């Protein structure tokens, strides 16, 4: 198991999310007015979600849980093998959808919806980190 790589990615996620938290205002009006800072928030969220997907892929590969046909298969394999809880697996699927939205529709993002989704989803990053660290301790 490539624990050092996984821990490094978890640290990166933590740093990115801390930056988001420090720069995310309390209301949508201030968020809309952030300009490039808002774009930076979107990018840090996107990269953090990508790191989560990467960690899941590393674990799937290192434990030889099967060859996935898509990223959802990886998440399912981790849930089926009690590496991720069902609740966390579902959250990762939601985060993956939000990441795809950020990547493929970057110029047409509805800031109101994105702001609400970001605020709602921030705790999920810490929950993911906790689940992965607990798994690594047991492994």
Give a written overview of the molecule:
There is one protein chain. 79% of the residues lie in helices and 0% in strands. It is an all-alpha fold. The protein has one domain: Up-down Bundle (Four Helix Bundle (Hemerythrin (Met), subunit A)). The longest helix has 28 residues, at 111-138. The radius of gyration is 15 Å and the shape is elongated. The model has no long low-confidence stretch (mean pLDDT 93).
Count the E strands. Answer: 0
* Strand composition percent: under 5%
Number of domains: 1
**What kind of sheet is the major sheet?**
none
Run of helices and strands: HHHHHH
Shape type: elongated
Determine the fraction of residues in helical runs and give it as a percent range: over 70%
Annotation field: number of helices: 6
What's the CATH C level? Mainly Alpha
Q: What would you report as the Rg, rounded to the nearest angstrom?
A: 15 Å
What is the CATH architecture annotation? Up-down Bundle
CATH homolog superfamily? bsu32300-like
Question: Which structural class do the helices and strands define?
Answer: mainly alpha
Per the CATH scheme, the topology name is Four Helix Bundle (Hemerythrin (Met), subunit A)
The unreliable regions are: none
- Mean pLDDT, rounded to whole units? 93
N- to C-terminal distance: 9 Å
């Amino acid at each position: 198991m490539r624990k050092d790589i996984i821990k490094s990615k978890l640290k990166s996620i933590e740093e990115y999310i801390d930056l988001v938290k420090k720069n995310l205002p309390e209301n949508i009006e201030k968020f809309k007015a952030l300009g490039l800072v808002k774009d930076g928030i979107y990018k840090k969220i996107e990269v953090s979600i990508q790191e989560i997907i990467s960690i899941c892929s590393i674990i799937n590969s290192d434990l030889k849980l099967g060859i996935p046909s898509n990223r959802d298969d990886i998440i399912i394999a981790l849930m089926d093998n009690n590496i991720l809880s069902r609740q966390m697996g579902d959250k990762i699927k939601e985060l993956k959808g939000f990441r795809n939205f950020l990547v493929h529709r970057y110029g047409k993002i509805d800031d109101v919806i994105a702001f609400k989704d970001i605020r709602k989803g921030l705790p999920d990053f810490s929950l993911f980190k906790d689940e992965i660290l607990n798994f690594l301790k047991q492994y």
